[in-house]
Amino acid sequence: MSALLEIRGLTAHYGDFQALFGVDLALERGEVMAIIGANGAGKTTLMRAITGIARVSGGSVALAGRRLDRLAAPDILRAGVSMVPEGRRLFPSLTVEENLLIGAHARRGSGFWTLARLYDLFPILRERRQQPATALSGGQQQMVAIGRALMSNPDVLLCDELSLGLAPVVIREIYAAFPTIRDSGTAITVVEQDIGQALKIADHVHCMMEGRITLSGRPDTLSRDAIHNAYFGVH
Ligand code: ATP
Fold first, then answer.
1. Pfam family of this protein, just one (predicted)?
2. Can you give the pTM of this predicted structure?
3. Is residue 14 lining ligand 1, measured as CB closer than 6 Å?
């Protein structure tokens, strides 16, 4: 049987500049996959190519066997791939609850995620649901961004740099929600510059450098040296 999300030979360009070179990845149901790599490795481009925001110039992306790479971004969302973008991109003048409800516009059937279940996942959001998103701390805003993405009941949740700019204790609090999300039936891909965090939460880790996957494996099988070389390159 094919993987839930299957990426084959994916390439992407910005004009003449090639940002992705034949990326192959497979995400299984119930799995958390982490993609690590330094600044500029191509991680965000990969997320944007999967979600239809960046144009794919070659290769394929399929969800449960259905090709996504020729669909427009809103159709990819409706097909079941939802993203938490880098920088969160909340609607600042809307309340927490209004931001969450925006995610429900792309809602697919009657899935697991409802406002009540999101508030159980992140109880602080229930307390602050009538406040504008900007009144929240960075970590709480990240919870809103995750909640908004979950409200479409996706098969796959893509998270871009969740930990950027957040304190370690806050990062741990956010990642503590992952087992519940995974158990709800949503497979997860996280992009992280924070290697330690990625190794802790992922079933599979892939390292990217200069638009290519340079190392893949389960966290317990990857040595520090191998990760270091794949992340920074061997000089
Ligand atoms: P970061 O951690 O900084 O987000 P990243 O691994 O996500 O890094 P990308 O943002 O995907 O990397 O960038 C990959 C390459 O593509 C980089 O060389 C970057 O300069 C280039 N790039 C990204 N966005 C654009 C764009 N809009 N136009 C031209 N080049 C771009």
1. ABC_tran
2. 0.92
3. yes
